[in-house]
Design brief:
Length: 310
């Protein structure tokens, strides 16, 4: 379990750090000058190996699970990140999503965490998807109804709309399939049955289910790159991460493919990187990248504590 937890945390953080210097660059810019290694500076003027809010909030969730899972602990950790620089790479918060910021403000004002998130359809950024992966170790042995409910609660701290919740649910169901040793194509095809059936069983409206047709009906891996978007919209991030995973053969190739899609490079690569590390193993993350990562020893310690809590 320790290496699984290392894979979850480092898989996300390495993808994130690879993408930070290129965030907001267009795909065309990156075609001409692709990211091929861990670099620094760039968009946010941060040194190589710097992770962003994606990883910081992932670590906040992991800490809450390691301490004995409680939504209030997750919320408290997120407030501490935003205002006390908890789990930042270099004692600085240099990026925060609008929806996440609004939710943290409500948390600070005393709102219950399960009701703090925005539920407007326009509030479907990728801010809950990017931090959700550590929840896998807490829900992996639970029934599907329990998994969905816990995912909904953790997503709703910042993103309460059903589309964000379903995106997190699909992502963690994919992660669970990989954790259980499934081939990535087999996992993908299995989810086209199981996730689709589950969403119908809990009476998710057809219009929302249809938003996921490229994952639940089509073969997303066969969709041309030009039709894969990589903005900060949660469904774009989810689709791009699965596309990158299915169209690569290693952790390194998956996360670099994600970064070089452009735009929201850090989050696309973080979400891809978590799955890729589960699929290929923590040991396949390039050592050179691990050694450059900010707070590597602290993340290692967190992975050990997280594995001991489940």
């Amino acid at each position: 379990m320790e290496n699984i937890c290392r894979g979850i945390l480092f898989g996300v953080a390495i993808g994130d750090a690879l993408g930070v210097p290129a965030e907001f660059k267009s795909r065309e810019q990156l075609v001409n000058s692709p990211v091929t290694n861990m670099i620094g500076w760039g968009t946010h003027e941060q040194p190589p190996g710097t992770f962003s809010d994606d990883s910081s909030l992932t670590f906040c969730l992991a800490e809450a699970i390691a301490d004995g899972f409680d939504l209030n602990k997750v919320a408290s950790n997120m407030i501490n990140w935003r205002y006390r620089k908890y789990w930042t790479a270099h004692n600085e918060v240099f990026d925060v999503g609008i929806t996440t910021q609004s939710a943290i403000d409500r948390l600070g004002a005393g709102e219950r965490p399960e009701f703090a998130g925005d539920f407007d359809e326009r509030s479907n950024g990728n801010g809950s998807l990017m931090r959700i992966l550590p929840l896998l170790v807490f829900i992996k042995d639970k029934a599907v109804n329990q998994r969905y409910e816990l995912i909904k609660q953790v997503s709703s701290i910042t993103h309460m709309h059903v589309r964000s919740v379903i995106s997190c649910f699909y992502y963690l169901e994919f992660a669970l399939g990989l954790l259980n040793g499934g081939d990535k194509i087999a996992v993908y095809q299995n989810l086209q049955v199981t996730v689709a059936e589950y969403l119908r069983s809990i009476e998710i409206v057809a219009g929302e289910r249809q938003m996921f047709d490229r994952l639940l009906i089509d073969r997303i891996d066969m969709i041309p790159e030009g039709q894969i978007q990589s903005s900060g919209y949660v469904l774009h991030t989810l689709e791009a991460s699965i596309w990158c995973l299915l169209n690569s053969d290693s952790y390194k190739d998956a996360v670099l493919k994600a970064v070089n899609l452009g735009n929201d490079t850090d989050t696309t690569a973080a979400v891809t990187g978590g799955l890729a590390a589960l699929l290929y193993g923590y040991q396949t993350i390039p050592a050179e990248w691990l050694n450059q990562l900010a707070r590597k020893d602290d993340i290692e310690d967190l992975a050990i504590r997280l594995s001991g809590a489940v």
